[in-house]
Amino acid sequence: MTPDARPAKGPLALSPELRQAARRIAQTEHLLVAMDFDGTISPLVDRADEARPLPRSAAAFAGLAALPRTTTALISGRALASLRAVASPPVDTLLIGSHGAEAWLGPGSAELALDEAQRRLLAEVRAVLEEIVEQAPGTLLEDKPAGVVLHTRLATDDVAEDAVAAARSVLQDRKGVFLKNGKRVLETSVVNASKGEGLTFLRQITGATAVLFAGDDVTDEDALGRLESGDVGVKVGLDFTQAEFRVEAPAHVAELLEALLQERSLVVAEEEPGTD
Ligand SMILES: O=P(O)(O)OC[C@H]1O[C@H](O[C@H]2O[C@H](CO)[C@@H](O)[C@H](O)[C@H]2O)[C@H](O)[C@@H](O)[C@@H]1O
């Protein structure tokens, strides 16, 4: 078990302020519950394909997805295929993948298509990273439709730092290549996108009247920065954030989703007598 996967220490209770915010947002006309995946719904683990949602989070998220006037979404850095494989999202959950470069909004959604120049550039980026990984024990690559991730979680700190520095020095000024820092990863992409754009897009297409977003990583700040008055933003972990609320670990996210499910169920049951 990695340190990030350990159960949170101390009581799991949400702060009274966050509980109150969940109660308030549950009253909104159309609620969008948008969640980051790794480090938020799922604890961080050493191997990306072994990440899974906490069962309590998955159950509460599925409960929310089944409610009227409530849309669930995942906004992830993962490729859509990888996100589906590890998250097994409820069937109607909207998906933003590759940090906003990919979107699944239902059957028939357009797939991300790169042009010839982007495909060539992506191959070049991969070749650069392959060479680095060969020299850096414990590092590995993850492919996405528009990018490649350099993972360093299984490398020593020195090796990880050198590998990321080497990749940055070659790629950071390369036109058309976009880099993002993540937790023990350097993300590369040939498409410029962000979770902020993803969140704004989801708000528009769902007509949501309020949004709850939670995320743990620096890339989630793009989404947190797009929240508006009446929305609820939650940072998972102790790093710097612009979010109004903070919880310590994914186990607290489960508790938040359960609280929201309870409140929202009461609201929709009152207004729509047929709903449990
Ligand atoms: O936006 P997210 O859903 O949080 O995805 C961000 C990246 O998550 C994955 O990497 C992170 O989680 C791995 C599994 O827990 C961990 O091993 C790695 O160190 C983390 O950075 C995923 O592999 C990336 O593609 C995502 O962009």
TrEMBL record:
Q: Name one GO biological process term.
A: trehalose biosynthetic process
Q: Which SUPFAM superfamilies match?
A: HAD-like
Instruction: Name the cofactor(s) required for activity, per the record.
Output: Mg(2+)
Instruction: Please indicate which superkingdom the organism of origin belongs to.
Output: Bacteria
GO molecular function, a single term: trehalose-phosphatase activity
EC numbers listed for it are 3.1.3.12
Entry keyword set: Hydrolase, Magnesium, Metal-binding
Q: In which pathway does it act?
A: Glycan biosynthesis; trehalose biosynthesis
Family assignment from sequence similarity: Belongs to the trehalose phosphatase family.
Q: Which NCBIfam families match?
A: HAD-SF-IIB, T6PP
Q: What does this protein do?
A: Removes the phosphate from trehalose 6-phosphate to produce free trehalose.
Name by which UniProt lists this protein: Trehalose 6-phosphate phosphatase
What species is given as this protein's source? Pseudarthrobacter psychrotolerans
Lineage of this protein's species?
Answer: Bacteria, Bacillati, Actinomycetota, Actinomycetes, Micrococcales
